[in-house]
Amino acid sequence: MEAPGLQIDPAKCTGCSLCVKACPFGALTLEPREKFDLPESRFKRIAVVNEACTLCGACVPTCAFDALALDEIERLGDERIEDYRGVWVFAEQRDGQIQDVVYELLSRGRQLADERQTELAAVLISGDLTEPPAALGAWGADRVYWARDPRLAEYNTDYYTQIMSDLIRAHKPEVVLAGATSIGRAFIPRVAVRVRTGLTADCTSLDMDVEQGLLLQTRPAFGGNIMATIICPHHRPQMATVRHKVLAKRQLETGLEAEVVPVAADLQPSLTKILEVVHELGNQVNLAEADIIVSGGRGLGAPAHFDLLRELARELGAAVGASRAAVDAGWIPAYHQVGQTGKTVCPKLYVACGISGAIQHLAGMSSSGMIVAINKDANAPIFDVADIGIVGDVFEVVPQLIRALRER
Amino acid sequence: MHIIVCLKQVPDTNDVRIDPETNTLIREGVASIMNPFDENALEAALAIKDAQGATVTAISMGPPQAGDMLREAIARGADNVYLVSDRAFAGSDTLATSYALAKAIRTLPAADLVLFGKQAIDGDTAQVGPGVAELLGLPIITYVRKVTVQDQQLEVERAFEDGFERMSVPLPAVLTVLKETNVPRMASLRGRMKAKKVEVPVLKAADIEAESHHVGLTGSPTQVIRIFTPPKKQGGVTLDGSHGQEAAQQAVALLRERKVI
């Protein structure tokens, strides 16, 4: 009846199944009491926990009979967490340009640092830059640690891991934030393991328990069906990657300058080599960073019909996305795919055209700021998440949308 | 050449539904499947085996029922499988999981290549592949969409948001692969027959010399303190689009009013 960590009191459990339903991991089942050596009871069944239990605690408050309890488990950690001070943001650049998500992270990071009455620093790893790093001061950075070397012009997991880990060990920040980009998600996990701390991926909100200095990291799981708030109580720094567009940008004042601290890049040779860099998107808008996305699904019926969506996208200054059905049908290349096996996006406006809204698609876009859905089937699940649902034929509605947008 | 593929058994999200009354996931009758991206990792290993010969070992950390998934890996063509399973691992976060898998990999014959899927569809963290690479001290390339092996050297395409890089790395190395890498094969009838007879060996904490303070809850820096269902969208507007023009104008007016466009 017990795994290490979760206790089920046989004297209190009535076999009512409330906890079984509440468990997100299927770790609780009801079994006949007679299978176990238990005292007599008027109830026939008892809740049993299996190995799938992650000790998340979701079941505990659902029990009406106080039969469930989580053990207090002693965890290993750094005893000197009070030595760690300051909030850091990884200032990701690509081709010398600071990425938008960095400004979002600095804006939130500034607030978190103020709440903790501490400093905000950016870590910049680059070759040459289009803007001086001191300009990050306008976004709240007090300081920029800048590792600059021609070998750092292109992303390299080994170099980035080494520089970030060494900086963390030397300066001991309490919080390290990075964008959940294909770079952040590639090397930050390696950094977290090297400095032996916790990391929460893909956060959609960050809060601070000021007194305890705990970063409350909230992220979706199970394709966005549930949200989990995660803490890292006994290890520092507290590390998180954060999705694009979920945090608001707040520029303080242009002209504010951050102190720039040069970092000597004493790089161990890397075994991975870049043979060729290929930009495929050309002038198209990058899905992950787009403010507006127009997406098409099975309802479009044919590859040529994506031209209609491209026209709408041009009118809105939007990127073009697609559901898995449209990609699998070969109507549009895979890098346009939004959803669980494609990209997770969070634009200000998402226009879903002829997309029914399978759970895998919703997982990739349901946190968008505003969702417009156009579908013939009034019962399509996409309408459950839509702010504006238009029940109608895509081929009638979309041309009218384009016309209405041109009227002004 | 020895290739180790790390697989995770996950709930099939096709089956996942929300109970509208309790606002929780309905798990009853939800099938467990091989994580879709891990299918691509397994296929990448089997394709190398077909092309130039290799021993493919599939391992998984999870509860005993994950053994079924490892049998599926045998049916598709894996040579060996191991289930890394112990009650002591319960509650492991990505650091503790990386530790246990790295320990398990070290107890097996030395690997030339370790493969992971891009991420698991239940947790979506993409952290265990890089974590294992770090603990094994091996180079890693993530988000790989094409793999070729020649003379102890890997050549891969690594996807970015706006394109890709062609990269090379000498073996041994770790890769995490995308769906675009390949199309996973089905198990052959012969494979299925073979898989039926396989007893999946279990590696317990002691077998991989995992120290107790590095696994399970004790070895996990992160802690889930709250799980909740995201609030349902309120106040959505439904427009009748049977006369496209009117609905379109209303929609555009609403978007302009809310300053979205």
Topology overview:
The complex is a heterodimer of chains A (408) and B (261).
Chain A lengths: L5 E3 L9 H5 L5 E5 L12 E5 L18 E3 L16 E4 L2 E2 L2 E2 L1 H16 L4 E7 L16 E6 L8 H15 L3 E5 L4 H11 L4 E5 L1 E5 L4 E8 L4 E6 L6 E5 L16 E5 L9 E7 L12 E5 L9 H11 L2 E4 L1 H5 L20 E5 L5 H7 L4 E6 L6 H4 L2 E4 L2 H13 L2
Parallel strand pairs in A: 5-8, 5-10, 8-9, 9-16, 10-15, 11-15, 18-19, 18-20, 20-21, 21-22
Antiparallel strand pairs in A: 1-4, 2-3, 6-7, 12-13, 13-14
Chain B lengths: L1 E6 L1 E3 L5 E2 L6 E2 L5 E3 L1 H17 L2 E7 L5 H10 L3 E5 L9 H14 L5 E5 L10 H9 L3 E11 L2 E8 L2 E8 L2 E5 L11 H9 L4 E2 L19 E6 L8 E4 L3 H14 L4
Parallel strand pairs in B: 1-6, 1-8, 6-7, 7-13, 8-12, 9-12
Antiparallel strand pairs in B: 2-5, 3-4, 9-10, 10-11
Helix pairs in contact in B: 2-5, 3-4
The CATH homologous superfamily of the largest domain in chain A is named HUPs
Percentage of residues in DSSP E strands of chain B: 25-35%
Strand content of chain A: 25-35%
Strand order in space, largest sheet of chain A: 11-15-10-5-8-9-16
Domains of chain A, number: 3
Can you tell me about this structure?
- Chain A has 408 residues and is an alpha/beta fold.
- Chain A folds into three domains: 6-70, 2-Layer Sandwich (Alpha-Beta Plaits); 81-263, HUPs (Rossmann fold, 3-Layer(aba) Sandwich), CATH 3.40.50.620; 290-406, TPP-binding domain (Rossmann fold, 3-Layer(aba) Sandwich), CATH 3.40.50.
- Chain A has helices at 18-22, 100-115, 157-171, 184-194, 306-316, 324-328, 359-365, 382-385, 394-406, and strands at 6-8, 28-32, 45-49, 68-70, 87-90, 93-94, 97-98, 120-126, 143-148, 175-179, 199-203, 205-209, 214-221, 226-231, 238-242, 259-263, 273-279, 292-296, 319-322, 349-353, 370-375, 388-391.
- In chain A, the strands form six sheets. In chain A, strands 11-15-10-5-8-9-16 form a seven-stranded parallel β-sheet, sandwiched between helices. A five-stranded parallel β-sheet of chain A has the order 19-18-20-21-22. Chain A has a three-stranded antiparallel β-sheet with strand order 12-13-14.
- In chain A, strand 12 and strand 13 form a beta hairpin.
- In chain A, helix 3 packs across helix 4 (184-194) and helix 5 packs parallel to helix 9 (394-406).
- In chain A, 53% of the residues are buried.
- The mean pLDDT of chain A is 90.
- Chain B folds into two domains: 2-214, Rossmann fold (3-Layer(aba) Sandwich); 231-261.
- Chain B has helices at residues 36-52, 67-76, 94-107, 128-136, 189-197, 244-257; strands spanning 2-7, 9-11, 17-18, 25-26, 32-34, 55-61, 80-84, 113-117, 140-150, 153-160, 163-170, 173-177, 202-203, 223-228, 237-240.
- In chain B, the strands form three sheets. In chain B, strands 11-10-9-12-8-1-6-7-13 form a nine-stranded mixed β-sheet, sandwiched between helices. In chain B, strands 2-5 form a two-stranded antiparallel sheet.
- In chain B, helix 2 (67-76) crosses helix 5 and helix 3 (94-107) crosses helix 4.
- Chain B is globular.
- The mean pLDDT of chain B is 92.
- Strand 14 (226-231) of chain A pairs antiparallel with strand 14 (223-228) of chain B.
